[in-house]
Design brief:
Strand content: 5-15%
Number of strands: 8
Number of domains: 3
Largest sheet: 4 strands, antiparallel
Shape: elongated
Helix content: 55-70%
Strand order of the largest sheet: 2-3-1-4
Structural class: alpha+beta
């Protein structure tokens, strides 16, 4: 597992993996499942021999095992790793070095392509392959759909404003903002990874929000002098933009405390993008707007305060809807399996599912020792290792289990070796004659042993429950678990991190937003109403995903923060507009404020929903989920800003 895919090498989650790798030097594995569709055992074996030889010649492959090199019928070790439940399929297991999967996997695929035929079907799996396949899907889809979203944004901006100068100015401003952000982020040494690959669309939307409100205020300004109109629009919009930028910046800053590298990288990139978006919106866009855009007054959308009863109906309905959706939050899945990163029914996922069903696809290392400090090769401790081997293999979530007991059973297949004691057999397995394989499972001091498990990702059970049960198996065998590591463990920690970041991050943001709301509204009751409406947005997103049993992975999780920032934008601009209208003596500040704000809010929401809606067409499920989360949050934000907040504020005022 590449540490920097989900975590950085110096992250605390990687400590156990680093320590296990140092004590038990065992490289990563690639597993090739080869199915015989021709029914000719001789031809199949010859093809396995040719493929095995070519794979062993690949730069980055240290060693390999197959039915062409080893007899699985004689060795319990090779029987487990080479045979599958399907008698027409066997495995080739490759030990690979630290070559980047982005470089190694194409080499493997090139060899496979030379040998694969309709009767000789090859599926490549293993942690390096899964990591590279996720990377490919992420980058391919995000490049395609981010580009398509930009073009769709341009089309919708044209439909909304029907002014070529505004369309050109908006696109130019957003593209300058995106380009400047990418340059600064690169200068800071932040790479394009799991989450920062979304940066183009995120920064585009952040810039677009400022532009939309600037345009609305420019069109609302009266007069013929363009310079005066621009200055008036800037003055009317700046306060709202500043506080909107502040809330968005706080949202990204909250990610900096996360212990997952992709979240921290998004935090840094988001802070840069937030600042750049504000700067470009107030420098690049006004030049275009003031010189070429047509002077035109907007059509204001009416807002009726309604009777007390009608307000209660709207507020009661909104409260009920949010309450029902919030019931889905406890059912939120923040620990999806690796296969959830690939589309159901796709050839890729079906192939990986076969490998997973055969013997598991996600690695888990458990390092055990005798609580009394005895040698794992002793007569007292070794039987307990054998007992643990059987208990782990009996667990439905566990596939193949490799351990010192299998090494001993394999060594006993050597003539006369069965007469030797366990300690001498481990010495034999540590020798050059057997490639020093024992060093990957037993320390030279014989005080600790490593169990290497391949976990089944198709089993629908929380990882925390699975790992707790496996820990019980270790204890029941009379052993002590000294360390747990591997991809399965990292995924479990990632799931816990996502859940805590949603809980602590959103909770912290809401506390900070309350302070901003008090500053913006300058009224405790109005700030409270604003805060309640903002709090409904993440409840709607997460609750909807919980009810629909849609997983929240690390790529999807920041969508709630983005939608919360979008909702804050709309409400901040509305509250500031209402406050200013009230100061001028307007009799109906909320009604007038909504009529002036509704058009930019609805326009921006439509553009954002349509742009992120393209992500739903992706073949990469995390991209789909990210797009859906932003859409749900944007719709909730617009509803709260235009329907709920005005009526809630009006009700509070009249009580």
């Amino acid at each position: 597992m590449q540490g920097d895919f989900f975590f950085a090498d110096d992250d605390p989650q990687m400590r156990a993996s680093r320590e296990v790798a140092e004590v038990f030097p065992a490289g990563a594995q690639l597993i090739l499942r080869i199915a015989d569709r021709g029914g000719d055992p001789g031809t199949y074996r010859d093809a396995i021999v040719g493929l095995t030889n070519d794979l062993l010649a690949v730069d980055g492959v240290d060693s390999g095992f197959s039915i062409a090199t080893d007899d699985p019928s004689r060795s319990p070790l090779f029987g487990r790793i080479l045979l599958t439940p399907d008698p027409a399929a066997t495995n080739i297991v490759l030990q690979v070095d630290e070559t980047d999967p982005e470089i190694l996997l194409p080499r493997i695929e090139a060899v496979v392509a030379q040998h694969e035929t309709p009767t000789f079907e090859v599926i490549v799996s293993g942690v390096p392959a899964i990591v590279e396949l996720i990377r490919r899907s992420l980058y391919r889809d995000l490049i395609v759909f981010s580009t398509a979203a930009v073009f769709l944004f341009a089309l919708l901006i044209g439909v909304v404003y029907r002014d070529a100068a505004i369309v050109a100015g908006t696109l130019a401003t957003c593209l300058v903002s995106v380009s400047a952000t990418l340059l600064v982020v690169q200068a800071l040494g932040v790479g394009i990874g799991l989450l920062t690959a979304n940066l183009v669309t995120i920064v585009f939307v952040l810039t677009l929000s400022h532009v939309v409100f600037l345009t609305a205020n420019w069109r609302r300004a009266s007069g013929e002098d363009r310079s005066s109109l621009i200055l008036e629009a800037l003055g009317q919009t700046w306060e709202g933009s500043f506080w909107s930028m502040t809330t968005t910046l706080l949202g990204f800053a909250s990610l900096l405390i996360a212990t997952a590298q992709p979240l921290r990288e998004l935090g840094v990139a988001g802070i840069v993008g937030t600042l750049v978006a504000l700067g470009t919106a107030y420098t690049v866009y006004p030049a275009t707007l003031g010189r070429w855009a047509r002077i035109q007054s907007p059509v204001e959308v009416g807002f009726h305060r309604g009777t007390l009863r009608s307000r209660r109906v709207v507020l009661g309905g909104a409260a009920m809807a949010v309450g029902v959706l919030a019931l889905g939050v406890p059912h939120l899945d923040t620990d999806p399996g690796l296969l959830s990163y690939f589309a159901p029914g796709s050839e890729l996922r079906e192939g990986l599912a076969l490998v997973d069903a055969d013997g598991g696809s996600s690695t888990l290392d458990i390092v055990v020792s005798d609580p009394d400090g005895g040698s794992v090769a002793s007569r007292d401790v070794y039987p307990r290792l054998d007992e643990l081997q059987g208990a782990l293999e009996a667990d439905s979530t566990v596939g193949v289990v490799l351990s010192p007991t299998l090494l001993i059973d394999h060594a006993r297949t050597i003539p006369l070796a069965g007469l030797l004691p366990v300690g001498m057999l481990l010495d034999l397995a540590s020798s050059d004659a057997l490639g020093g394989v024992a060093f990957g499972f037993v320390t030279p001091e014989r005080d600790r042993a490593r169990f290497s498990l391949r976990m089944r990702e198709t089993v629908d059970e929380p990882r925390e429950d699975v790992m707790a049960r496996l820990a019980d198996r270790v204890e029941e065998a009379g052993l002590r678990a000294d360390a747990v590591a591997g991809l399965y463990d990292l995924q479990a920690q990632l799931g816990q991190l996502i859940a805590s970041s949603l809980r602590i991050g959103i909770g912290g943001l809401m506390a900070l937003f309350l302070g901003v709301a008090l500053i913006v509204a300058r009224s405790g009751p109005i700030a409270g109403a604003m805060w309640l409406c903002l709090g409904a947005i993440p409840l709607v997103i997460l609750g909807a995903f919980g009810h629909a049993r849609i997983a929240i992975d690390i790529i999807t999780s920041p969508a709630a923060n983005i939608a919360l920032a979008i909702g804050a934008d709309s409400m901040i601009h509305l509250v500031i507009r209402v406050r200013r209208l009230a100061s001028t003596g307007c009799a109906t500040p909320w009604a007038t404020g909504v009529s002036q704000i509704a058009r930019p809010v609805l326009g921006a929401s439509t553009i954002i929903c349509a742009g992120f809606g393209l992500f739903a067409l992706s073949s990469f499920p995390p991209t789909q989920r990210f797009g859906m989360a932003v859409i749900v949050g944007t719709m909730a934000a617009a509803t709260m800003a235009l329907l709920v907040l005005p009526r809630l504020a009006t009700t509070i005022k009249n009580t």
